[in-house]
Amino acid sequence: MLVRLSWTTAWPESWDAVDFALALRRYDLFAMQPHFPGYPFFILAGHFFLPLIENEYLSLSWVSAVSGGIGVGLFYGVARRFLPEKWAFWGGVWLAVHPMTWLASEQPMSDAMGLATALLLWWTVSFSLRWPDGDQRHGWVLVSGAVVVAVLLGVRLSYWPLAAVLLYPAIRLLVVKGKWQLSAERVRYLILAAGLGIGLTGAWILAVSNSEGSVMRFFRLGAAFTEGHFTQWGDTAFTGAPSWADRMVEFFRRQIWVAAMGGWYPTAPTWQWVTGLAVATALLAAVTFERRWGDHRVRLVALWMFPYGLWLFFGQNVEKWRHILPLIPAMILAAMWGIRRLAERRRLAAYGLLALILTLHTVQGASLVRIHHEDKPAVVEMADYVKNHYDPDRVVLITWEEERVLYARDSRYETILLHSWPVFTGALTPYRHGEKHVLITGAVVDGFGPRKELLRPYLREVARFESHPLIDPVYHTIRLYEIDVKRFFKETVDGVQGGRAS
């Protein structure tokens, strides 16, 4: 935790980070401070540190740092249910130095707190591994887990599929020697768990929605946000992306090979091939040797991995590594099982493999955290460049997600959030006579698809900004163009309209 606290940053590094920071000043979902569903527990935790630090971004980063440290301890508790103490300890060390979990613990985002809460859920449910089928203590595990799920949904709603692990204590409570035992004494635990889970979730929804006016306004906002996530900007499997086969390739390349395993990618050093192959060897060992964890442990891991894995593939943006965080502890658990089994046959090889993985992941993680701490993200560099080179009264910027960061750096600058070509010319019309400089980011230009070629002759690149592709998976390269609006209207828009009139 102390290591994480010493490397936190105060950058407004992304749209979501700005949303969260603005929420510490004024909580307003309809102003996207933060966006739906409101993340009340994460924002509340940020308020705990804000009086001490007086910087919204740093306060939220401290929440992540503390959560990252707590998450390591909770994962050790989970691992002790699956592995001997020695191997569970090294599994905890691995999670502590894993590049993605370490990086998430330095950012002003809700991911690290979400992971810690998810691990609290897994640790709670793992108590059911200790008792036989039918033991009524499974019922209290179920009830406790339902309370944790209610908190988890208020930290990161996108982790909702992890609630599937509650099926494990529920089934072990109700099934005895292969037969269902649906007595009133047992079913009451299901009723109590459902009541507490739904009631506590409803309580924070009510609190958040009351701050917005009404519960109905909250759910209308949620419906609109969810529709946009799956049809416009969420980059899910249903937003018109490439084929599912291409998406599967990207999923395994970005999420599994690069993010989870630490494997090589085009701008990475060659030795990261060794990292990915070493982790792959440990995972292969886990499924090769005939001795298994046992049915109960396999089922619990499967209930954790498969529902969330399907959601990650179909319902999340596979370009953003942070979405795979809940699956990284499961991967480490399986890999540590494989290394332990390897040690029973080749002790030196097993310890060498473990030392290699921990060393390489520590080097990779420390490098990422240092870059994140010392170097401005590309989007922040762009915002600062605009501040230093353009008068806010003489420029307008056409952007995508970069808009929020520019606003955080200097709210005087006029921005237009643009996603489609049909409204593009309408947005440019007030500036057709050249009264202002009109800047446009490469993300907007690329989003026009084939029509961007119509715009190319009127663009002049004024600056380019680069940051690390793992730290900024989507906006690690930002191109800033100036549009010759007068010539664009004269030769393209007016010319087309004149031709149609004649």
UniProtKB/TrEMBL annotation:
Gene Ontology cellular-component annotations: plasma membrane
Keywords annotated in UniProt: Cell membrane, Glycosyltransferase, Membrane, Transferase, Transmembrane, Transmembrane helix
InterPro entries: LipidA_mod_glycosyltrf_83 (IPR050297)
A GO MF term: pentosyltransferase activity
Coiled coil: none
Protein topology in the membrane: Multi-pass membrane protein
Transmembrane segments: 36-53, 59-78, 87-105, 111-131, 138-153, 159-175, 187-207, 271-289, 298-315, 321-339, 348-369
Location of the protein in the cell: Cell membrane
GO biological process, one term: lipopolysaccharide biosynthetic process
Chief location of this protein within or outside the cell: membrane
PANTHER family found in the cross-reference section: MANNOSYLTRANSFERASE YKCB-RELATED, MEMBRANE PROTEIN
Protein name, UniProt field: Glycosyltransferase RgtA/B/C/D-like domain-containing protein
Originating organism: Polycladomyces abyssicola
